[in-house]
Protein 1
Amino acid sequence: MPSFTRATWLVLLRAAGAARRQIALAVVAPTLLAVFIVVLFDTSFGAIAQAPGWPVPGFVDWVTPGAVFLSVFVGAGFSAASLAEDVRSGYLDRLRLCGSHPAAHVAGRALFEALRAIPPAAGVLAVAVGLGVDIAGGLAGASLLVVLAALLAAAWNGLFLTVALRSADPAAVVGMQPVFMPVLMFSTFWVPVAFMPSWYEAVARFNPFSRLVDVGRDLLSGEASASTVLLVAATLLVLIGLGTAVAGRAYGRTVQEGLA
Amino acid sequence: MLPGLPALLMAVVLPALFDRISLVAGFGGARLITYLAPGAVTLTAVLGGGFTTASLVTDLRDGYADRLRLLVPSSVGLVLGRAVVEALRIVPAAVVVLVVSTIVGADITVGPGLAVAMVLVAFLSAAFGHVFHLAGVASGDPATAAAMAPLGLLLGFLSTALVPAAVMPRWAAAVAGANPVSIVTEGVRSALAGEPASGEVFAAAAVGLVGIALGSLSVTALIHHQTTRN
């Protein structure tokens, strides 16, 4: 029986193999979708950067950190869909007979999702630089932003893995995709709070995603404090732990119900 | 009601987020919600398009259409019937978007223009549905309509539905000028402003009707081509 670490590594390698075979869906699509959405909004609403009080040179300068995180949201659920298929086909049951550690199936996929988030996040940043966005925070700021995106991917995909394990239905995983939309729309993703009506501002301030985007913005502008970045990273790590635990529990319940 | 959800979100969220764009030179002075409301009503047709495509493709694949042809030789009824469904189903959703837009502050003139606006949106829905039908019949896959969903988003954003062309980049303004969704939007805008018999309204109606006619002919021809080939 492989150790938990070894089993996690094997699950990660299997997920990576599946991603390699579907590179367009796993990596290219999230990059293009994030860029597509930002370009569409910039086309229609980019002129808002000419309004009095806009804090940065252009619209894209403001939304770039959010766009990096957007690539995580639009690409979520890749390994969860395959997990649902594994549950449905009985593959997971067969692994269990071999003594495989249940948590490894969740941890390995969460780790894979973190790694998979890196190329789209870096790709979106590269496109932003190409569009003339100034990254005053330099390579260090940009790299830390990508690391935060990777942590967000591991945390956010916990939700998808839980649904996959409970439903055993890849369509249910796909159906979860739009959940990110209110998280994103009711945040400081598109405009500063000063541009929002009071009710909208209250929601945006309450939304934890606003905090994440704001820290990302500070990283790119070179104004982030180490303590804030660490706090956000620690929060994401706690969420990853919670997500893994909840998904592991869902796995346990699915197994129990299967035995009953 | 589901087809209206994206447009409804646009009518509520976008004016809250981007209201200050109305302060930018070229916008025209009106508040964003007043400008955007007719666009959101129009976009109900394009953001929820292709509802009947899956059933059309399934009918063709499962042989139901073949059995129908034994009774009625032409496929025109199969296509036109769905165009009518596409036109009618969108009206309740468009009405809800209009009502909510008014609640959140859009300035709409109550009168016969409301009915005219709904007719224009219905025409657009029927015409745009044919685009999905063409792609669905060509691919033979009922999931085609779902895969084509971003097309509505693209057509909506690259039109004058959300903001005037004057505040768009030059390339986007050129695309918006040639986009049929812009023509229909301007017709709906004129009707909702209390001018139901303006040139914009007639132009929008013409775009819708020509779209329905061309679409129906093309889809029917494609179905005929595929069935005779098989």
Protein 2
Amino acid sequence: MDSEKAMESGFATFKEEAAEILDSLEELLLDMADHQASPDMVRESFRLFHTFKGACGMFDLKELVTFTHEIESILDLVRKGSIALNDDMRRIFLSAVDFLRDTIAEIKPGQVIDDSEPKRLISSLRCIVKTGPETQTPDSIPHQPSTASQNKAFRLLLSPSEDVFFRGIDPLNVIDELKGIGQCYVLAQRSRIPDLLEIDPERCYTEWDVLLITDKDENQIRDHLGYAVDTSTMLLQALNSEQASEAYCSFGCNMSSAPILLLDEPHHEAHEGHMDAYERHAHRADSTVRVSSKKLDSLVDLVGELVTIQAGLTQRVEAWQLEQKPVNPEELYLISQSIEHLVSGLHGSVMGVRMVPLWDVSRALKRLVGDLAAKLGKCVTFVATGQDTELDKSMVERLPEPLMHLIRNCIDHGIEPPDEREAKGKPREGTITASATQEGVNVVITVSDDGKGIDYEAVRAKAEELGLIQRSATISNKELRELIFSPALSTRKIASDLSGRGVGMDAVRKCIDSMRGSVEVDSQIGKGTVFTIKLPITLAIIDGMLVRVGEEYFVFPMAIVEGCLEINNSARSEHNGRQLIEYHGSLVPYVRLRERFGIRGERPQVEQVVLVHVEDACMGFVVDVINGKNQTVLKSLNKIYRHVQCISGVTVLGNGSMAFILDASKLYRETLEAQGQGNGKLVTA
Amino acid sequence: MKVHSTKKGTVTRVTLQGELVVEEVAIFRQDLLMIMQHAHRIVLDLSKVTCLHFSYLQLLCAAHRHACKSNKTLSLSLGPDAQISRFIRLAGYETKAGCSETFGQSCLWRIR
């Protein structure tokens, strides 16, 4: 049973690591489109496919091993300069990554995999290799002929760990790999092999001494050995000509057959080519959800301190009970302060663990832009900035869907075809820019294009036709832009004919709303459109303002609270059936939560109004009592209550009672609709 | 993997057939120990082996050392197919000199 569990756990780890490798591969292949494939990038792709193959081999996933091996063979030709990597090949490699990712996500140990798609992809690749250009473009994969002057000698001492066979790794593959990059002389050191009576035949006792003559430099050799680093001790030494000759003799080689060696002392070649992309990729490799030991140490320290304080508190309580000493409020206050300090530290540390950068989202968008532009015959460049910006993990996982929809919108309807752009005096290639920045407790993400902008007349005409606005009504462009997010308009595919995708801009807004964020759009005819998404950095714990109505508690996210007012009978007023109060010289609409949620009981003589900033406007919510600031741990609503509108979650208060977290945006929009102003703002803040 | 043993005079011929995979190497060690208890001159015939895991080379080396210590002989018969020879060469086992463990005696991997 233990071995089954170990197998399950090992397989889960394999799936995670395989997914990471595929993510890195995808990014690398995408980078190749922007920067042309440098030798380093090709080598890194080869290494990643090779590592992936090795991992699949460990779990006996034969079909995947065969498929990856075929890809590797073709990449090897590129690596050696025999063929040039073109865009068609790169796309097929990306499709291969897609197939492998989907397969790995679903696969179970020992499962047989349908190899029809791999066969199709390999067949396409072979077709390109056969018919593709024999020579290369000057900037792509420079061929380095193995001339005598470039040969260098290296000696490698390879000592695999004894359990290497258990890990499914065959050390001879390393030697085979070295044979692929140069002339290789191998001597096995067998002195550690025990007698038959003592040997554990499933362990490796052999070490190897390898003399390698190659035109590759030390780093390139290490790249080839990369996947064996975890399971072997390796000592790679560059030899000068004298050392090389000695090594030659000791390996028992015939000197007349020795390749001409470089006579100079060995040196390290500087990396050349498109290192920016390569380095970015290397940086990207650790951008997964891993927790640094430093962060964990800090958490453990904090928990340790918390345990100490708790022990101290228990001692005091026992002393007060047993010795019947009076409770010392000062001591209690000090303990409470210490706990508060530690909990605040724990909060910060735990939130830090949950924060992940936006690299994965950016990669997905880049891929989408490339694929969709090719499909629609448009030339589009994707520029991403601020991918290092961190956001709560749960949001990063939900963000791709709305962002992808916005990008589709930009490509499908914003960016004009190349000829049309040229006629307008624009570059033939359109640009879609995605950027992310942290602004206080929010992350602001913008997606913009330099296309034709929103056709306000078309939006207006359709809105009139659908009865969303009255004909001849004065509607600003801003209000027309808001209409794009209206379910009626977007699901009818009017302003943007997002055919076949079954998701409208209202779905984007719903998704962003569910993360307690906001989405706005700005557009200039002929110049382009900008979507701005604002999201709170974290969803797990927020600063909230706790209020009470009757016996019910509610929480407003502190980030949207603008201020509070007292309201009595004389201050209330109604204008054309709308409830308004004066705030900083403006009339602000308000809603009484008691009425909205049907809470029984008498209204107090003096009520409180919480003024919140929502969607560029200000709105008041009338409550009985304002309890003050509260650290709110968010919990999602039970399935039974999911249909309840305008509540985004719940939290449990210190006294054990429950408080509802208000969705101010929904309440605001609901109020607009109720007051017949569905298309405009009430008061601009 | 199939292991078949025949005795002709003083020579015991052990024929291995098929794929020699790492999962079965421990079983083969037991087989070898049993055979070597009773035989004095052993020839291991690898000519019908289609595929060989590296762990078997180590095991054969260990068996040869055991044979030398026990004053027995162990030799290999590779047959006309050069596949196994190539594998031995790739693994760096092929040698012009014997190893220190079996000094003065025949070496399983010496080039003839």
